[in-house]
TrEMBL record, chains A, B:
It comes from the Bacteria. This is ROK family transcriptional regulator. InterPro entries: ATPase_NBD, ROK, WH-like_DNA-bd_sf, WH_DNA-bd_sf. It comes from Vreelandella glaciei. Pfam families: ROK.
Length: 408, 408
DNA sequence: GTATTTATTTTAAGGGTTAAAGTAAATCAA
DNA sequence: TTGATTTACTTTAACCCTTAAAATAAATAC
């Protein structure tokens, strides 16, 4: 006669099992219990339910049996077809679409050149609808449902309201994009800052497993940052937290793309480096306000080959970066600062002055034990993170929908 | 045959009831249910248990009955005698001891002048033992137990390890103080940064209830900060997060007490203001490296009365503060920045340049909707916060001990 | 083939919550 | 005064969830 349903333990335990399987791949019931602090009786019960719902499958026993006495483990694993998610990365003049399955694997990826800066808000919406529709038609055969869509956007976004507040890739502002896409595709839409996606991927790597408080700095055309606190992205009041690129190096210093002066980005971003170099050096021509990868590589090479003017420019960028990181250490005291993004190509030319600036700026007590490391850049990382975040965000819904359809 | 005890819901609900009573004062069982999302049947069960354990009492009905039909509410309230906590604030050359009861009310407060800078670690330990023993003997009659002790310390502390890493009040470092006090008084000892205590008190005020992400800046002899994220103090990897005072205004700028250059503290703290003024102005004599309240008031008065040199000094301090706050806004994007501490006496003389610097530093998208306000300073706030935090930290233990003694 | 080992499932109990029913204690209305 | 009404609290009887223990399953070791 009672309908409690307030008890969350079964729900929580079920989500924990799903996420363990996603992180670890196939796992036996005993081990699922041990990893999540629940009894194997409960795991039996939960996995029976998930099997019936089609969210997991039992993996057939290996042909060469693993050594050891006793009854062999029966591994269960996520059913990759149970759901899929789409992640769209929006950057300057390019979008990338990636499809991921329920187990988190990337199934498909495509890039499109798009003149993003010329689009209106309606154009963008129409474009996204078209591209997502196409990918749904071509790539989503066999999946039981589209669980969600993640929009990974450079710039300031409000995840909560699903609004792009400002992006360097777009010439309009305050676009409530999530709601429209959600309505069109009948699934939840997660709007994320691109740096948060990358930080989520990096934080999942075993090398950084012991860093609950992780700062990721992304060098590139602009400079982005993500702060994970206990493993979750810190968003702040409007989602405009972690704007490292616009924290200050020199009040009244160099002009930044944001229109103000003295931002770290105005010294250490691609456009700032190229701007500083354009007057003094003989570099490949082109749009010097939006240097290409080729142009940046040429400039980096000059510095690494010992050209004094190029070295001076990178040294000053390193100093700016160092002061900025010193402020981050003083304010966040993270376990680890990771520097990545396409701009890491020039990290070796900035590293010395960066470390020097940090050591000059902070006494050892405040410098703390924070590791500061660079990290190779992979342009696919953003969407991998977006897929992981979208799956995580939609697990509860996928679960409840599977329960509903299993009952009927 | 089973001893589950893993189910945490009863425990969580019981703590929620205790904390609701502490925050709200006497509350009826129905309202406890509504406030915490549990049924009143459960509240009946929980409060029966707490009554039996002596942690709460039923308040006798009011003589002039509250209007309204129906059976009147029976209010329950915390039994103030159920436990008490002691908070000790350690600042430069002064300690304050405060006793709080289980309901969170301050029962006793005392100040002692102590030459803290001349103490060794052992001296400090002996001194604290002596003062705590004395207060226990005199003030703890009638309390069922001493639940915990809170040490509120200016400087960098590691709450986790109970170690004072560095404090401007002490001439030694890395003192593992918590463990020894805990052993001596057989209760848990919470080591907290003083700014976190103050932030906790402020965050509990109704005016700031809608600010889950709150930054509190404390101006005084030095400059401290606390960052509450979703209402809990952010500590960072070693507890040295939120060191706003040592974030940078000008690389290679003014000399700071920490030994480095260009820190915000080197411009806007009491010692920095007095140092800048000492050469130009006719001020009360004394130790200009440790200006007294009287000296600071004289200096502030000069600025507020229009003395150009004093005004220039406060204007520059405001600019430094503004750049520092701009960085805090860019990195944390909080809902509210509160400026308090004894140094708010000079806030009016800094405010204009501070706001100007913030507006110059950040575009509106990054400036966000963060409110920036000052807040009157009360030297007792630290210990009030320490008491609240100590009670919060020890509630679970108080509960389990009461259960154990109620069974026997 | 039997003992041993390990994994999974079943069973029985226990803790927790709640809807509903029951009880208590007030006001309102005649 | 008395009964209807209203609101608060308590008791009861489910129901959910978890787990220890027992049972079962499926391998290896001897």
């Amino acid at each position: 006669m009672a309908l409690p349903s307030t008890d969350t333990s079964r729900h929580d335990n079920t989500l924990a099992v799903i996420r363990t399987l996603r992180d670890q791949g196939p796992v036996a019931r005993v081990d699922l219990g041990a990893l999540n602090g629940i009894s194997s009786a409960t795991v039996t019960s939960i996995s029976a339910e998930l099997l019936q719902q089609g969210l997991i499958t039992e993996r057939p026993p290996e042909i060469p049996r693993p050594s050891g006495r006793g009854r062999p483990k029966t591994l269960v694993e996520l059913n990759p077809q149970a759901a899929c998610v789409v992640c769209i990365k929006l950057s300057i003049n390019e979008i990338q679409l990636v499809v991921g399955d329920f187990s988190g694997q990337v199934r498909h990826s495509e890039h499109h050149a798009v003149p993003t800066l010329t689009l209106s808000a309606d154009d963008l919406e129409a474009l996204l609808e078209e591209k997502i529709s196409a990918i749904c038609a071509q790539q989503l055969k066999g999946f039981q449902r589209l669980a969600g869509i993640c929009l990974a956007v450079q710039g300031v976004v409000s995840s909560q309201s699903g609004t792009i507040i400002w992006s360097p890739a777009l010439s309009f502002r305050n676009a409530p994009i999530s709601a429209r896409i959600a309505e069109r595709f009948h699934c939840s839409v997660l709007l994320e800052n691109d740096a948060n996606c990358i930080a989520s991927v990096l934080a999942a790597q075993p090398a950084y497993a012991d860093c609950p408080n992780l700062v990721v700095i992304m060098l590139g055309y602009g400079i982005g940052m993500s702060v994970l606190i206990n493993g979750v992205p810190y968003l702040g009041a409007n989602g405009s937290a972690a704007e490292f690129g616009h924290s200050k190096y020199q009040p009244d210093g160099a002009l930044c793309a944001c229109g103000r002066r003295g931002c770290i980005e105005a010294y250490a971003s691609d456009y700032a480096l190229y701007r500083a170099a354009a007057d003094h050096l003989n570099l490949p021509s082109g749009d010097s306000a939006h240097p290409s990868e080729q142009q940046m590589q040429a400039l980096t090479q000059l510095a690494l080959n010992g050209d004094p003017a190029a070295q001076r420019i990178y040294a000053e960028a390193g100093r700016a970066l160092g002061i900025g990181i010193a402020n981050v250490l003083a304010l966040f005291n993270p376990d680890l600062v990771l520097i990545t993004g396409s701009g890491v190509r020039g990290f070796d030319a900035m590293q010395a002055t960066m470390h020097h600036a940090i050591d000059e700026a902070l006494v050892t007590e405040l410098r703390g034990s924070t590791r500061i490391e660079s990290c190779a850049w992979d342009r696919d990382m953003t969407c991998m993170g977006g897929i992981a975040m979208a799956l995580h965000a939609t697990d509860a819904q996928t679960l409840s929908e599977s329960q509903a359809s299993a009952v009927s």
